[in-house]
Amino acid sequence: MSAERIYLDHAAGGALLPAVQKEMLRYLVGNQASPGGGHREGREAREELEKARQRVATFLGAKDVEGVIFTSGGTEAVQSAIRGWGEAVQKGTIYVSEMEHPAVESAVRTLGKKGFTLVRVSVDVEGRLKWGEVKVEKDKGLVCVHLAHHDLGTVQKIAEARKFADRVGAKLFVDATYSAGWVSFSVEESGADLVALSGHRLGGPKGSGALWIRSGTAWAAWLEGGRQEGDRRAGTENLPAIVGLGVAVEEWGKKGEAFRKEAGGAQKLFWHGVQKKVGIAKLHGAPLGVERNPAHLAVSFAGLEAEALALVLDRVGLAVRGGSGCVTREMRVPPGMKAIGATAEEARALILFTLGWNCGEEWTGEAADRVAQGVKRLTEALSA
Amino acid sequence: MSAERIYLDHAAGGALLPAVQKEMLRYLVGNQASPGGGHREGREAREELEKARQRVATFLGAKDVEGVIFTSGGTEAVQSAIRGWGEAVQKGTIYVSEMEHPAVESAVRTLGKKGFTLVRVSVDVEGRLKWGEVKVEKDKGLVCVHLAHHDLGTVQKIAEARKFADRVGAKLFVDATYSAGWVSFSVEESGADLVALSGHRLGGPKGSGALWIRSGTAWAAWLEGGRQEGDRRAGTENLPAIVGLGVAVEEWGKKGEAFRKEAGGAQKLFWHGVQKKVGIAKLHGAPLGVERNPAHLAVSFAGLEAEALALVLDRVGLAVRGGSGCVTREMRVPPGMKAIGATAEEARALILFTLGWNCGEEWTGEAADRVAQGVKRLTEALSA
Q: d(Cα A203, Cα A24) in Å, to the nearest integer?
């Protein structure tokens, strides 16, 4: 067995794209002037900022470049989108599943405590949102949908969410933090009103993210203070990260198709290897193909505890995520697994394997062997 | 005249300390794993995170390392401190001046709209807060004070603010985003309950900041979602920035005395030069010395408009800030200038000259010449 480690937790953090790295290294040795200054250094910084804004708008398929607001990451973009809408409308109804990422779930709960009505959208056994069965309220509404699920990998049909939103006269928020780039998306085609983006999931820098808001959408700034970002997001602009995000999304524009194809190929090889070698392995969420994020596998190993298995896999040189990709204190069972009706045993045994832009596929056989070895070791340890 | 530009807008953005730059360049070429993962890469990231936390606690003179929460910058730290306190206590009184930074002012106004009582603290002609004259309310209170003023440069006596807070049974929030490092401060000595810090003002990276909370202080997390930072600040940790902030504050521990001495010397030389060459120049805030941030000069040129003068100075190779360092839409006159009773003419003509760790003093004579030249040019243009 090769001693080289295999890292399959890219959704939590992965290497910067080479072009991003290069640009950030260039930027960090510069003068770090802020775009706000009325001097040459400030004007140059302003140009960098607006160039990045244009790049993000292009990536999102958005005509309105000014709709882009830079944030400190995906969580802030999500919180700012939902709570900013809530602040602006003061009361209304939020249509949302019970398996959203904690950033979404905590924002809608906070609004729920402030008097908003929460209408839950149910899902099928592979995690697809069922818009046909949703109860309709009459007041101002916000439909919250994710582009692909963070724990299940299932891609949602945004067009159906938009159709539902139109039917109830609601705005549409798309949480694209987990799967932008990996899954085809355009704000104009989808008709989204609010979109959240995370930079680091695109091979961009940590601490970068964006919120896109359709002009005319009721929304109030969430992070208040200075006048940066057109009074919509206060605080000195994190220009090195913003510049990095701009380069990252531009890279996806050029190479996204190749990234998706490569990840999808590796995903298939790896899953088939695991499936063949580990009898108890079970894939959750949508099957491989267009309905699944090509960089994501959610596999349960019923009878084993996810955290323990992740630790054993780490020992055999495979870095993975045991349990949900992101949990709150109360979420002992990944909400996605509960929502699709997985058994308690399966839900406790969920391992996420997430790929990045730099995975290739030469590791897939070895990684499947390591999974088999880890499962065997833990099973033996428990039976001893 | 030398063609080389002189940059005196460091408070808005300045070069990284060499050690910070080196560390960030090292970090950005790494695997970018997140501290949350239960694998080797995640544990190594966790170690980096906690090392930085320890460094920030040491810099702040805080015994409780766990009191440190990393944020996306000074504005988020300020907003999170004040609004998090507000969320936890639900009603109460905030004691605050009318010349705070917009991050503070907007947070207290937001709480004011939610039913909190705002009691305004007046200031003397050099910008010192007058705690003896403040009206006292009986409910739960928060005293908001800045370490040194962002537009006036005046250092506040935090001990007096603490004494007042004790008298009224209030918690003490110290906004140290503008002058930490440049002005002596320790959370234990000052008895602060909440402290906000900005990384980029310390030669650290943009997008880095910290909030320190004394254990037992009523406070609720502001940015919700995942469980990062002990459920106190959700979102994937921006580890490159956090690591950079850690190195920055460690550098200040080693070299802070030298930075302060060098900036103070340059401040004196430059101001004396300007004073000598430009008759209309008037220093605002505290006089040079221990009551003034050594990296800050607030000078009015009555009769001229600050923005216009800043543009002319830019043309003669001097990058400065015209008007307040940070304004909101409604603050056409810098609130600090209004609070100290400056004339409208002076308030409209305020130029900020802010120094950084890398200024040296060889530029001071040339910079004073350029100020004189800029003032002359603009005066002539207006009289023509």
A: 12
CA B132 from centre of chain: 25
φ/ψ (deg, to 5) at B309: -65, -40
* Sign of the CA dihedral with B339 first, then B340, B341, and B346 last: negative
B16 secondary structure, DSSP code = P
Under a CB-based contact definition with an 8 Å cutoff, are residues A370 and A6 in contact?
A: yes
Set of chain A residues whose Cβ sits within 8 Å of the Cβ of B235:
72-76, 103
C-beta of residue A123 within 8 angstroms of C-beta of residue A130: yes
Give A 140-179 residues with CB within 8 A of chain B: none
If we measure between CA atoms, which residue out of A237, A241, A247, A243 comes closest to residue A35? A237
Task: State the Cα angle at B160 between B158 and B166, rounded to 5°.
Answer: 105
- In the numeric block, the tokens 């320890």 are attached to B54
Amino acid at B81: A
Residues in A closer than 8 angstroms to B25, CB to CB, are 25, 28
Specify whether the CB–CB gap between B264 and B294 falls below 8 A: yes
DSSP class of residue B310?
H
Is residue B326 helix, strand or coil?
A: coil
CB contact under 8 A, B42 and A107: no
pLDDT in tens, chain B (384 residues): 457 999 999 999 999 999 999 999 999 998 899 997 789 999 999 999 999 999 999 999 999 999 999 999 999 999 999 999 999 999 999 999 999 999 999 999 999 999 999 999 999 999 999 999 898 888 889 999 999 999 999 999 999 999 999 999 999 999 999 999 999 999 999 999 999 999 999 999 999 999 999 999 999 999 998 889 988 999 999 999 999 999 999 999 999 999 999 999 999 999 999 999 999 999 999 999 999 999 999 999 999 999 999 999 999 999 999 987 665 555 567 899 999 999 999 999 999 999 999 988 999 999 999 999 999 999 999 997
> Does residue B165 contact residue B172 with C-beta atoms inside 8 Å?
yes
When CB atoms are compared, the residue of A42, A225, A326 closest to B103 is A225
Place of tokens 């050690």: B19
Contact present, B236 and B227 (Cβ < 8 Å):
no
Is the distance from CB of A278 to CB of A299 less than 8 angstroms? no
ipTM exceeds 0.85, yes or no: yes
Is there a contact between A319 and B40 (Cβ–Cβ < 8 Å)? yes
* pTM (2 d.p.): 0.96
How many H helices and E strands in chain B?
12, 13
Is there a contact between B37 and A102 if contact means CB atoms under 8 Å apart? no
Cα(A33)–Cα(B34) distance, integer angstroms: 29
